[in-house]
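User: two proteins, same treatment. go.

Assistant:
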Amino acid sequence: MLTMVKRFAQHHCCHVWFVAHPRQLHNWIGNPPNLYDISGSAHFINKCDNGIVIHRNRDPEAGPIDQVQVCVRKVRNKVAGTIGDAFLYYNRVTGQFVDLSEASEKL
């Protein structure tokens, strides 16, 4: 199925996003999951062009619970981006994500 979806995206010049949650999310504490924490992950990792993990801190002792980490873990076409992390702050009032450095200036 993943091969057919990838072929469709290439034929129609579009992006296809799969959203997958890690196995055993209810037991998750600490660091962000990686691409191998997805059920059937080997197929996803081999077929995808870009792999991105979005992780929200759930432990108040580890830092602010409104902090979100965007982890780029796979980039097949290096022109499209680079592997790395970005930290965002979720503003519960406005429903917006802002760069963590901008959020600290406003707080």
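Protein 2:
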Amino acid sequence: MFKKFRLKNYRTHTDTTLELKDITLIIGSNNSGKSNLLSGLNYFSMLVSKAFPGSEKSKMLGKHNFFPHKHSLSDSNTPISFYCEWERDNNNTAYELQIYCLNERSGDIGCKEKIVISSNGSEKKITHGHSEKSQKMLLRTKLETEALTYDEKKLTDTFFRSLAFLYYYHFQPAFLKGQAFPVIQGKPAEKKNFSELFVNSKKSLNIANEIGREGAHFQELVKYVKEYDEVSYGRFLGYLKRFVKSFNGIIIDKGVTKWQFDMGTSEFPYFEPDKVSDGLIKAGAVALLCAMKIPPAMIMIEELENGINQKNLSEFLSWLTHTSENGIRTQFILTSHSPSVIREFSDRLDAVYNIHLRQRDYKSIATNLNDAIKPLVNMGTIEEEGVLERDGKEVIQVKPYELTELFYSGILGEI
């Protein structure tokens, strides 16, 4: 489970730290930097994935890995960096990656990597690119020849696999229902036939990658899983039935995916995706990701409330909590600017961060809501509902309507 992320000098995030829970909520207005944050986490995850020792992809860094991503007002001497802490069975891993400019004229880019492995009471630190300059991400390759114990090797392998399995989505109901497709180089993307691509292929299907940022290939993936992956389909069905008890399964009718429901009669009607509620379709996409044999370690979803009825948001968030299995199976980072979502976190303010863009220097400032609300409680601006201890910290609980009032008064956006 990831415990902490830190981004430095990535776009508007000059120094942003998140302490992570099973579900972490990011709130803020448009253009506050919410998308930049998720983009940064996704970017460094992709770099780590490319650095897999067995990968044929180049581990060499170029100017495209630095200049488009740094804060627009920072100079070329300031590196962009990513840091994270991760825990599994009381063993810990801390990893840091810095990317910096070696030569602005030639565009040569260097990197520094460091990992600290804490396992069974012992600690080891391994670095790459610190004593000698390096333009390649080779720490993972270097670890293969380090004198690590079996437990340490297993821990680092699991950690890097988890870090490479961060996925960032902005699910749109029209895409999820197969009514719209993203435009690539001026042309709409075509439907994919996953049975042709993978049934007789040695390649494995990565649903988290193939589904697409907006979810355009969701219906075709559901069809593939229904027909060729009984175990994953069973998990998918189980997850969704927790959310909508009347959901009965997927029917393939003349090659088309249809959604079947138990309406309390002797018949079980089924409907084309465009007749299914936006909320259920979005839950279906999350359920399919979580049903994978190895689900994403972190699922990041922008504007969670899009397409979900406000009355169903509470149920949806509760369902996400059960689906994450306390962060053991997967974790979520959600973004929102809806008071209906914010109020659902009134008893877990430590899992909420407000982001606003400071106009004078175009820096995104992230503030933990639990820390920010303490002074408001002390001043009597809002009433404390209760206090509990979580992860060694006091967490304030407030009434949901108090958060809604703070939102509409504009105070929440200024915290």
